[in-house]
Amino acid sequence: MSDLISPWVQRYAPLVPGGAVLDLACGTGRHSRHMASLGHEVVAVDRDPAALAATCGQGITTSAIDLEEEGAAWPFGPQRFAGIVVTNYLHRPLIADMLASLAPNGVLIYETFADGNAQFGKPSNPAFLLQAGELLELAREHGLRVVAFEDGVIDRPKAAMVQRLCAVKPDFPREAALLPPF
Question: Is the whole-model pTM more than 0.90?
């Protein structure tokens, strides 16, 4: 795992309006710390208590939750978060509930492994790999407007096949989705 902030998260994090941010499967908190540095109160969730210990910091509340255990339910209410950040994690059974927790003007920043990643190593289990266009379809199914999408090979922090999405809820103002050029 890298402590470097994902360039995808770094690029789209400024779009998140004021309010709480969920960093789902936060690991050691690289994105939690980044979102807190932008002034957000962050809820950092992971099942690994040791990783959460490394995540602690000002503006960050950690919560040890194993969302994949038998009978796990989504622990957050609807429209709770101005932003949700997910990297290197996929657990399909709770995606609908996760997206329901996004505020009416909220921003989803998602980046994880995609089909074809086996050529680069783990994960290689299809249960943990997005299928072609899967993030786009999830956005469409849940009424999100796609601001940006990529599907392809990255070389840093290690070679991998990924899909990346930044999508917003319907109340997000269109003019706020414009970023400065690269």
Answer: yes
